[in-house]
C-alpha cells in the first residue's frame, strides 16, 4: 500500500501538466506563419517544409495546448477564437527567439532559403552585384530572386511568400516596414524624327494632348511620380500606351510610337547613340525613392544582413544591361 498517495498524485498532475503544455519553437512558427500567410502552402514554403509537415506541427501544438487553433471544416482552414487570441502571443515569442538567435549567430554565415522580389529596373542594373555579394558573404544561403511589378511583389511580401522586397516605396501597408536605400532618376525622351506638329526642341508638356505617352502600367512604382508630374503641368495625355517592361518601353519610344521617360543611364546611352533625344522643355520628374521592405513581424538576422548588402549595392547607373 502506498504510504504517500498525495505525493504521487502531485507528481502525476505535474507530469500531465508538463506533457500537455510542452511545445517547440518550430510548432509556434508553423502556427504563426499559417495564421498570417495567404495559405498553408505559402507558410510551408516559407519554412521550407511540406504542407503535411506544417499541418503535423500545428496538430501537435493543438494537442499540447488542448485547444483547436484552426477550423478545418471548410475548403480553407480559418482561425478559431482561441487561435486568433494566440496569434499576437506567438508573434512575440517568435520575435524574442529571433533576437536571441540573431545575437547568438551574429558572426555566423546565413544558411537556408532566401526568397525576395525586386522591380525590373533593379533587375536590369544592380541586382546581379547584390546577388554576388550575398553569395560571397553567405555561400550556404540559397537565394531565389523574383523580378516583377512593384504592386504584385508587395502583395506577395504581405502574404508571406517573400522574405523582403526591393521596390519603389515606401509601402502604405501597416504590416510592412520600409527603409529608403536609394533613388532612381528619369529623363523625358523621344525619337529624333518623331512625327508631331511641334518642333521637338520646342515640344512642351501641353503638347501631350496630341501625343501618345508610353509608360509602365498603374501597378508600377513610377505611377507615383508620373501622376504628380501630370498634375503639376496641368495636362492629360491624348493617349496612354502602358507596357510592363522597360526594354519594350525603350523599343516603343525608339520606334517612334510616342514619347516617354526612361531611367537616366539608359536614356543617356540611347541619346549618345543618336536613337533618342531629350525633351528639354519637359520639366524633370522627381527622383523615385526605392526601399528595402520587409514584414514588420520578421526580425530574423537574414533581413538585417540583406538590407545592409542592398544598401551598399544600390546603383541605378550600374551598366549591367543598359548598353
Automatic annotation (TrEMBL):
<keyword id="KW-0805">Transcription regulation</keyword>
<protein>
    <submittedName>
        <fullName>LysR family transcriptional regulator</fullName>
    </submittedName>
</protein>
<keyword id="KW-0804">Transcription</keyword>
<dbReference type="Pfam" id="PF00126">
    <property type="entry name" value="HTH_1"/>
</dbReference>
<dbReference type="InterPro" id="IPR036390">
    <property type="entry name" value="WH_DNA-bd_sf"/>
</dbReference>
<comment type="similarity">
    <text>Belongs to the LysR transcriptional regulatory family.</text>
</comment>
<keyword id="KW-0238">DNA-binding</keyword>
<dbReference type="GO" id="GO:0000976">
    <property type="term" value="F:transcription cis-regulatory region binding"/>
</dbReference>
<dbReference type="InterPro" id="IPR036388">
    <property type="entry name" value="WH-like_DNA-bd_sf"/>
</dbReference>
<dbReference type="GO" id="GO:0003700">
    <property type="term" value="F:DNA-binding transcription factor activity"/>
</dbReference>
<feature type="domain" description="HTH lysR-type">
    <location>
        <begin position="23"/>
        <end position="80"/>
    </location>
</feature>
<dbReference type="InterPro" id="IPR000847">
    <property type="entry name" value="LysR_HTH_N"/>
</dbReference>
<dbReference type="Pfam" id="PF03466">
    <property type="entry name" value="LysR_substrate"/>
</dbReference>
<dbReference type="InterPro" id="IPR005119">
    <property type="entry name" value="LysR_subst-bd"/>
</dbReference>
Amino acid at each position: 500500500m502506498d504510504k504517500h498517495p498525495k505525493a504521487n498524485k502531485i507528481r502525476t498532475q505535474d507530469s500531465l501538466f508538463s506533457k500537455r503544455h510542452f511545445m517547440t519553437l518550430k510548432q509556434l512558427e508553423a502556427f504563426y506563419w499559417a495564421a498570417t500567410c495567404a495559405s498553408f502552402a505559402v507558410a510551408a514554403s516559407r519554412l521550407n517544409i511540406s504542407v503535411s509537415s506544417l499541418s503535423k506541427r500545428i496538430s501537435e501544438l493543438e494537442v499540447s495546448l488542448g485547444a483547436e487553433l484552426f477550423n478545418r471544416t471548410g475548403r480553407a482552414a480559418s482561425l478559431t477564437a482561441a487561435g486568433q487570441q494566440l496569434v499576437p502571443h506567438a508573434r512575440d515569442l517568435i520575435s524574442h527567439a529571433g533576437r536571441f538567435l540573431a545575437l547568438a549567430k551574429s558572426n555566423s554565415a546565413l544558411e537556408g532559403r532566401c526568397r525576395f522580389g525586386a522591380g525590373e529596373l533593379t533587375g536590369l542594373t544592380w541586382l546581379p552585384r547584390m546577388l554576388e555579394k550575398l553569395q560571397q558573404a553567405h555561400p550556404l544561403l540559397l537565394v531565389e530572386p523574383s523580378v516583377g511589378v512593384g504592386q504584385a511583389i508587395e502583395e506577395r511580401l504581405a502574404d508571406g511568400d517573400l522574405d523582403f522586397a526591393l521596390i519603389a516605396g515606401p509601402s502604405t501597408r501597416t504590416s510592412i516596414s520600409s527603409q529608403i536605400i536609394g533613388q532612381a532618376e528619369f529623363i523625358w525622351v523621344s525619337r529624333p524624327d518623331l512625327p508631331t506638329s511641334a518642333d521637338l526642341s520646342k515640344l512642351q508638356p501641353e503638347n501631350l494632348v496630341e501625343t501618345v505617352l508610353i509608360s509602365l502600367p498603374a501597378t508600377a512604382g513610377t505611377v507615383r511620380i508620373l501622376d504628380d508630374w501630370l498634375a503639376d503641368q496641368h495636362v492629360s495625355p491624348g493617349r496612354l500606351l502602358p507596357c510592363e517592361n522597360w526594354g519594350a518601353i525603350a523599343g516603343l519610344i525608339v520606334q517612334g510610337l510616342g514619347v516617354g521617360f526612361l531611367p537616366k543611364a539608359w536614356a543617356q546611352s540611347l541619346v549618345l547613340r543618336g536613337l533618342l533625344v531629350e525633351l528639354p522643355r519637359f520639366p524633370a520628374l522627381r527622383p523615385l525613392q526605392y526601399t528595402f521592405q520587409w514584414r514588420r513581424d520578421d526580425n530574423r538576422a537574414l533581413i538585417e544582413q540583406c538590407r545592409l548588402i542592398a544598401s551598399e549595392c544600390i546603383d541605378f547607373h550600374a551598366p549591367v544591361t543598359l548598353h
